[in-house]
Amino acid sequence: MVWLFSLSAECGTTQSDAEKFAQYFAQISFVLSNGMRSQCHANLFQDLEENWWCRVTPDQISEVGINTPETAYIMTEIGIVLYHYL
């Protein structure tokens, strides 16, 4: 599976901070204006500087990229929805 939309946050050097961020976003589900339902999933990774990151990806989102105006609108709407949860 390929994901083409994500929200990533650097959470510092403490893994538990990244885990809290991931737990918060993993609970989020939403319905878009076109009726599409999506559930967020989160995973953690550590960069070369030993900072922890959390990557949040909603499911049911385009796996081919932005190929239509509707897809562009949906991607924008998802970004706005996730931004409001920050």
How would you briefly describe this protein structure?
The chain is α+β, with helices and mostly antiparallel strands.
What do you see in this structure?
The protein is α+β, with helices and mostly antiparallel strands and 86 residues long. It has one domain. The chain contains two helices and four strands. The protein has a four-stranded antiparallel sheet with strand order 1-4-3-2. A hairpin with a 5-residue loop joins strand 3 and strand 4 (52-58). The mean pLDDT is 88.
Strand order of the largest sheet: 1-4-3-2
Task: Tell me roughly what share of residues is in helical segments.
Answer: 25-40%
Radius of gyration: 14 Å
What is the residue-mean pLDDT, rounded to a whole number? 88
SSE run: EHEEEH
Largest sheet: 4 strands, antiparallel
Structural class computed from helices and strand pairing: alpha+beta
Number of helices: 2
User: What is the count of β-strands?
Assistant: 4
Strand content: 25-35%
Q: How many structural domains does the protein architecture include?
A: 1
User: Which of globular, elongated, flat, extended, rod-shaped describes the shape?
Assistant: elongated
Oligomer: single chain
Identify low-pLDDT runs.
Answer: none
Beginning-to-end CA distance, first to last residue:
26 Å
